[in-house]
From TrEMBL:
Lineage: Eukaryota, Viridiplantae, Streptophyta, Embryophyta, Tracheophyta
Cellular compartments annotated: Cytoplasm
Purpose: Component of the eukaryotic translation initiation factor 3 (eIF-3) complex, which is involved in protein synthesis of a specialized repertoire of mRNAs and, together with other initiation factors, stimulates binding of mRNA and methionyl-tRNAi to the 40S ribosome. The eIF-3 complex specifically targets and initiates translation of a subset of mRNAs involved in cell proliferation.
Protein name: Eukaryotic translation initiation factor 3 subunit K
InterPro entries: ARM-type_fold (IPR016024), eIF3k (IPR009374), Transl_init_fac_sub12_N_euk (IPR016020), WH_DNA-bd_sf (IPR036390)
Family note: Belongs to the eIF-3 subunit K family.
Keywords, comma-separated and alphabetical: Cytoplasm, Initiation factor, Protein biosynthesis
Domain of life of the source: Eukaryota
Claim: Manganese is one of the keywords in the record: no
Amino acid sequence: MGRELIQKQQQSAVSYTVEQLVAVNPYNPDILPDLENYVNDQVSSQTYSLDANLCLLRLYQFEPERLSTQIVARILVKALMAMPAPDFSLCLFLIPERVGSSHVLINSASFGIADSDVSFEQAIQAYAIHVLSLTYQKVPRSVLAEGINIEGLSLDKFLEHHVANSGWIVEKGQGKGQLIVLPCNEFNHPELKKSTADSIPLEHVTRIFPILG
């Protein structure tokens, strides 16, 4: 118990120190190693700091020779896990084109997120559902299956969970197909529909699942 308390205090101290560095002197290249270590800490501890990661990406712009592709990739993975917040787009905007595509970067980081694959995949699934809700009031089962990368009995259990907890309704479609009725919201009702300009297209989201294996 005492050891756990000390570890928590140490983690809080590290977080506080990094946040202070970002707030006080965000353009000082001397803090770059601290920010890189903090990215690795975020991966291992499943924490997240957008401000610190954006600060690091800005420093890379001023110090391109010190840029670590692996660190950038891990930042993108953490940003993806924050969807539907626009963090991924904010980070991607600060990455030089020469570094490579976001897909390649994320693929290079896949080995580094093994311990958080489950939470990462769940975050991507949640965002896929969010994107579907922007388009559909009733989504075909096949489209949902592709969007969240689940099929068969696993999809049946997934649907049962959301029928019981999220207000979903499963209807019979054409032939043996099924339609999943999503709850009414401001996105799938035209009179309440908001702009979706900042959303990542569903086809981009579904490309992430093969990276997880």
